[in-house]
Design brief:
The complex is a heterodimer of chains A (about 500) and B (about 180). Chain A starts with a helix and ends in an 8-residue tail after the last helix. Chain A is built from 21 helices and four strands. Chain A folds into two domains: about 350 residues, Cytochrome Bc1 Complex, Chain C; about 110 residues, Cytochrome c-like domain (Cytochrome Bc1 Complex, Chain D, domain 2). Chain A has a two-stranded antiparallel sheet. In chain A, helix 3 crosses helix 11, helix 5 runs antiparallel to helix 6 and helix 6 packs antiparallel against helix 13. The longest helix of chain A has about 35 residues. Chain B has about 180 residues and is α+β, with helices and mostly antiparallel strands. Classes of the chains: A mainly alpha (about 500), B alpha+beta (about 180). At the A-B interface, helix 7, helix 8, helix 9, helix 12 and helix 13 of A face helix 2 and strand 3 of B.
C-alpha cells in the first residue's frame, strides 16, 4: 500500500491534478438532485464511451470501400469471433444513446434547467442532440447495404431541393455524380473523425458548464427564477443544504449507467446485430428501403405531406424546429421552473411525443406503400369467391392480375395505399365503380388504357359482390326514375 | 522602452504575428476549399454525363418496357457494384424509345414496372406512374426522369452519368431522341 501511495504522490507532484479532481468530485450539489431523475446525462455519456470503444473495435475489421464494405460486414458477422456481438453492441448502443439523449432533453426541459444561467448549456445540448442524430444517420450509411444505398438517394433527393445550390449540394454530399465509393469514404470520415470530434468537444463544453454553474436544482412550484437573485439563491441551496456529488449523488449515476450497459448487452445478445440487408447493388431493385428506427417518423411524414408543400416543409421545417429549440432559453429564461406550473410545456412534450410515436408506429406498417408482391403472393380470401358466377370469378382474377391487390386490401390482406374493398359495393354504385377504375382519381391511377372493356366489366361485376350478405349494395336511385323501373334490373 | 499609444513593441509584434498567420490561413484555405469543392467544380467544368450503351436494340421488343443496366462512365475500382446503374427502357415503336431513370421523382427510391397494369410503382412512399412515365398518383410532383437517347450501329445509347434528383433531373431533362449522332 505504501508503494502505491508513493507512486501516487510521485505522479501528483508532476501532474498537479489530485486537488482539482478531489474538489470536482466533492463539489456540493442541491440535496434533491441526488435523484434518479438526474441520471440520464451521465448515461448518455456512458453510451458515447461504449460507442467509441465498440466503434474502434469495428474499425479493426471494417473496410470503408463501396466495393468491400458489405463483405467486411459479413466477415464481422460470421467470420470473426464475436464480431457479430461487437456490431450488435454498437448498433444497440446507438439506439440507446439517441433514446437516452432524448429522455435527458425532456427531463431538462420539464425541470426548467435551460433557464438562467444555463442558457448556453441548453444550446450546446441542442447541438449535441443534432450531432448525435448525425452520428446515427452516418452510422446507418456505414452499414453499407440496400437501405444505406437508397437512404443516401433519399438524402440526395432532399438536398437537391434546396433552391439554387441544390445540385451542387448533391455532388458535395455524394462526392461525385452518383452514390459510390467516394460517398462511403466521406461519410466514413464524417462518422469516424469529424462528428465524433465535434461530439467530444461539445460534451466537454457541456460538462464544464454543468460543473461551473452547478447542476439544476430540483424545481419547486413557486420558486421563481430571477436573474438578479438566482445566483445567490443557488449558492445557498448548495452550500447550506447541499451534499457532496461524490458519493451522495454519483452512486445513482453509476448504477444507472451499469444498468444501461447491461440492457444494451442483453439486446445485443438477444436481437443480434442490425443487418446488413441486401448488397448495395443498385441494379437489384426488388427492395423496399426503410430508415432506421429514429428516422422512421420522418419517413412517415414524407409520405403524408402534400406534394406542393413538401419542399418548403422539408427545407424550412427543420430550420424552424432548431431555431425554436435554440431560442427557448432566451424566450423563457426566467420564471417558474416546475412542470406542475408549466402546463403548456407539459402539453408540448405530450404533443411531440404522441406525434413522433404515431408517425413511427405508422412507419412500421407503412400503409402508404403498395405491397409490391400482394398481387402474386396473397390470394383472394375464399369467402369472396364462394358461390360466385364465372364472370365474377374472372373479375377476381382481373383484380389480382392488374395488381389492384397491391394497393387495396381484402380481409386485411394486401396493400393499404387505397381504401379496403371488403364492402366497396356499399359505397359505390356500378357506374361509380366503372368510372373509378377507368378514370382513377382520389390518388388512384386511371386504368382506362391498361384494361379492356371486357376486363372492366368482369372486375366491376366482382367488386359489386363485395358487400355484407345482409346489406344491399349501393344503387343509383335516380337512375330508376330516369330510365323507368322496367329497365333497371334488380341486383 | 517607451509605450506610445498604449502599445508596446512586443504587443505590436504579437499583432503582426497574428496578422501574418491570418494571411497564411487564408492562403492555405484556398487549396483546401478547392479540394473540398472538387465534386462540384468537376461537374460544372467537364460535366459528368456521356453517351453510354444499353446494348443492342434487339433486347428491347417494341411495345414493351424492360430493365436495362449500364456501368457508369466515371467509376473507380473500389466503387464495386455501386457503379452499375439500372434504368427502364420502353420501346414505343421501331425507332422511338423512352428511357426512364430507376429513381422515383419523389425521393429517389427504385421504381418497379408492372406490365400487367402498365404502371411503375415505388416501394417507398407509394408513387405511381403510367407507362409513358407521367405521374399517376402518390407524392411525386412530376413524372419519371428521362434520359436522352440515340441509336447508333443498332445500339441504344443514353446520355447518363449523374444520379437524377428533383433538383437536377438529368441534363436537358425533357428526354427524347437526339438526332445529332
Amino acid at each position: 500500500m505504501r508503494l502505491i501511495q508513493k507512486l501516487g504522490d510521485w505522479f501528483d507532484l508532476r501532474l498537479q491534478l489530485g486537488a482539482p479532481i478531489r474538489e470536482t468530485a466533492r463539489h456540493p450539489v442541491p440535496r434533491e438532485t441526488a435523484s434518479w431523475f438526474y441520471v440520464f446525462g451521465s448515461a448518455a455519456l456512458t453510451c458515447f464511451m461504449l460507442q467509441i470503444v465498440t466503434g474502434i473495435l469495428l474499425a479493426l475489421i471494417y473496410v470503408p470501400s463501396a466495393g468491400e464494405a458489405w463483405n467486411s460486414l459479413q466477415t464481422l458477422n460470421h467470420g470473426i469471433s464475436l464480431g457479430w456481438f461487437m456490431r450488435a453492441m454498437h448498433g444497440w448502443g446507438s439506439n440507446f444513446m439517441v433514446a437516452i439523449v432524448l429522455i435527458h432533453m425532456v427531463q431538462v426541459f420539464l425541470f426548467g434547467a435551460y433557464k438562467f444561467p444555463r442558457e448556453l448549456t441548453w444550446i450546446v445540448g441542442v447541438l449535441l442532440l443534432l450531432i448525435t442524430l448525425g452520428m446515427a444517420f452516418t452510422g446507418q450509411i456505414m452499414r453499407f447495404d440496400q437501405d444505406a444505398y437508397w437512404g443516401l438517394g433519399i438524402g440526395a433527393s432532399i438536398a437537391s431541393r434546396v433552391p439554387v445550390i441544390g445540385p451542387w449540394a448533391v455532388n458535395l454530399m455524394l462526392g461525385g455524380p452518383i452514390i459510390a465509393g467516394a460517398t462511403l469514404s466521406r461519410f466514413f470520415a464524417l462518422h469516424v473523425f469529424v462528428v465524433p470530434g465535434l461530439l467530444i468537444a461539445f460534451v466537454g463544453l457541456h460538462l464544464l458548464m454543468v460543473l461551473k454553474l452547478g447542476i439544476n436544482e430540483w424545481p419547486m412550484p413557486g420558486r421563481i427564477v430571477r436573474r438578479a437573485t438566482y445566483m445567490q439563491e443557488y449558492h445557498e441551496l448548495t452550500h447550506r443544504q447541499g451534499v457532496p456529488f461524490v458519493p451522495n449523488a454519483v452512486w445513482k449515476d453509476i448504477f444507472f449507467s451499469g444498468f444501461i450497459l447491461v440492457a444494451i448487452a442483453v439486446c445485443a445478445v438477444h436481437f443480434g446485430p442490425f443487418g446488413p440487408s441486401g448488397q448495395p447493388d443498385p441494379t437489384i431493385i426488388q427492395t423496399a428501403p426503410r430508415p432506421d428506427f429514429f428516422f422512421l417518423w420522418l419517413y412517415a411524414l414524407l409520405s403524408f405531406l402534400p406534394p406542393s408543400a413538401e419542399t418548403p416543409i422539408l427545407l424550412i421545417g427543420p430550420a424552424i424546429g432548431i431555431i425554436v429549440l435554440l431560442a427557448l432559453p432566451f424566450v423563457a429564461g426566467e420564471g417558474e421552473k416546475s412542470w406542475k406550473r408549466r402546463p403548456i410545456a407539459l402539453l408540448t412534450i405530450l404533443l411531440v411525443a404522441v406525434a413522433l410515436g404515431t408517425l413511427t408506429h405508422l412507419a412500421e406498417h407503412a400503409p402508404w406503400s403498395p405491397v409490391m408482391d400482394a398481387w402474386s403472393s396473397q390470394p383472394i380470401p375464399a369467402e369472396f369467391l364462394q358461390g360466385r358466377t364465372a364472370l365474377e370469378r374472372h373479375g377476381a382474377l382481373v383484380f389480382q392480375a392488374k395488381q389492384c391487390h397491391n394497393c387495396h386490401s381484402l380481409n386485411d390482406k394486401g396493400g393499404q395505399r387505397g381504401p379496403a374493398l371488403d364492402t366497396v359495393a356499399l359505397r359505390l354504385t356500378e357506374d361509380q365503380l366503372i368510372r373509378q377504375v377507368i378514370q382513377g382519381g382520389g390518388n388512384m391511377p386511371a386504368y382506362g388504357k391498361n384494361i379492356s372493356p371486357a376486363e372492366t366489366t368482369a372486375l366491376v361485376t366482382f367488386l359489386k359482390t363485395l358487400h355484407p350478405a345482409n346489406q344491399k349494395p349501393a344503387r343509383n336511385a335516380s337512375q330508376a326514375m330516369a330510365l323507368g323501373a322496367s329497365e333497371v334490373s334488380p341486383r | 522602452m517607451s509605450v506610445e499609444n498604449g502599445m508596446s513593441r512586443r504587443a505590436a509584434l504579437v499583432k503582426l504575428g497574428m496578422f501574418l498567420n491570418s494571411v497564411v490561413a487564408v492562403v492555405l484555405a484556398v487549396p483546401i476549399v478547392r479540394y473540398l469543392l472538387s465534386p462540384v467544380t468537376r461537374g460544372r467544368k467537364i460535366g459528368y454525363e456521356s453517351w453510354l450503351s444499353l446494348g443492342g436494340l434487339e433486347q428491347f421488343p417494341a411495345g414493351q418496357t424492360r430493365l436495362a443496366t449500364y456501368r457508369n462512365s466515371l467509376v473507380n475500382i473500389w466503387d464495386g457494384e455501386t457503379g452499375n446503374i439500372a434504368c427502364w427502357v420502353r420501346r414505343v415503336d421501331d425507332q422511338t424509345f423512352q428511357v426512364f431513370a430507376i429513381n422515383c421523382a419523389h425521393l429517389g427510391c427504385p421504381v418497379r414496372w408492372f406490365p400487367q397494369s402498365s404502371l411503375f410503382m415505388c416501394p417507398c412512399h407509394g408513387g405511381a406512374y403510367y407507362q409513358d412515365g407521367s405521374r399517376a398518383s402518390g407524392p411525386p410532383e412530376r413524372g419519371l426522369f428521362q434520359y436522352r437517347y440515340k441509336i447508333e450501329d443498332g445500339k441504344l445509347l443514353i446520355k447518363a452519368g449523374e444520379m437524377p434528383t428533383p433538383g437536377q433531373p438529368v441534363a436537358n431533362n425533357s428526354g427524347g431522341k437526339t438526332t445529332c449522332a
